[in-house]
Amino acid sequence: MNLSVSVESWPIRGVFRISRGAKTEAEVVVVSIESGGFRGRGECVPYRRYGETLESVVATLEALRPHLAQGVGRGDLSSLMPAGAARNAIDCALWDLEAKRAGTSVAALAGLAPPRPVLTAYTLSLDDAGAMADAARAADKPLLKLKLGGDGADLDRVAAVHAAVPGARLIVDANEAWAAADVLPLARALAGLGVVLIEQPLPAGADEALQGIDCPIPLCADESCHTAADLPRLVGLYSHVNVKLDKTGGLTEALVLADAARALGLGLMVGCMVGTSLAMAPALLLAGRADFVDLDGPLLLDRDREPALAFEGAMIQPPSPALWG
Predict the structure, then answer these.
(1) pLDDT score of 68
(2) Residues 270 and 164 grouped into a single domain
(3) Range of the domain at 8
(4) pTM for the structure as a whole
(5) Average pLDDT over residues 312-316
(6) Which of 282, 276, 259, 272 is nearest to 106 (CA)?
(7) Which residues are part of the catalytic machinery?
(8) How confident is the model over 144-181, as pLDDT tens digits?
(9) Does residue 183 share a domain with residue 231?
(10) Do 280 and 299 contact (CB within 8 A), yes or no?
């Protein structure tokens, strides 16, 4: 198997801002694996929050080159690479390659139902209350995800958005920015403002403070949940977990995580980093099993790769075989 690794930069429409910072472009790593006249592709987004950089991810991928030359398979990756962005790109490329070789779909290979159109959340970047309300009106989407900042103005932000689009359901994502003492008061205030899910209110590792609180809104773990090994600690703290392929290390572990979460009574959210349609396509195989889908990465970009996923309003259509899978 021949490996190609490339770094790409995709301009974001405006600025994407969360509690930890802002960016104007999505920097992604694309893997291509060729064998027997077939090519499989995968895309990942290195994330500094998890100690990843473009350079470290590329180096990890290059270190796998001799193993791929010897025919390493998806089942071997967990012993060769840690969970994370690099393994995601390789894992998804191998799934794509395997499907093309077999003349079938990744869904069929994985024993899954074919992907179907699903409703995705649309993310509003962190900003002042008025700007976020304006963005909500302009978006005109039924499910919005609001990035919050833990700076004392979050309730105003959500109230302004709810007033602007009272019919929309809202997910709020603090990205670890709230204090433990603020979770319950804020949740009680947000319960009447169309909020249906609170994502990662506290820093990962500090979420034991959520044990036993009577939260009126479901809580979803994001930064606290990477692989199935994280799940036992999260039971009783969260009702949902956010499955992202860049955290799990690809579709293979994501499927394990989703099954294990359901077995423990946890709901599922399928999420993403800001990337192109190539990064979203594998995650769509999980979307039909999820309570919430947040695969809007391409909608946040100034342009997408071709071929791209088709978005009809807030609905994502299944990927074409030319894109992935």
Answers:
(1) 92
(2) yes
(3) 2-103
(4) 0.96
(5) 95
(6) 282
(7) 147, 244
(8) 999 999 999 999 999 999 999 999 999 999 999 999 99
(9) yes
(10) no
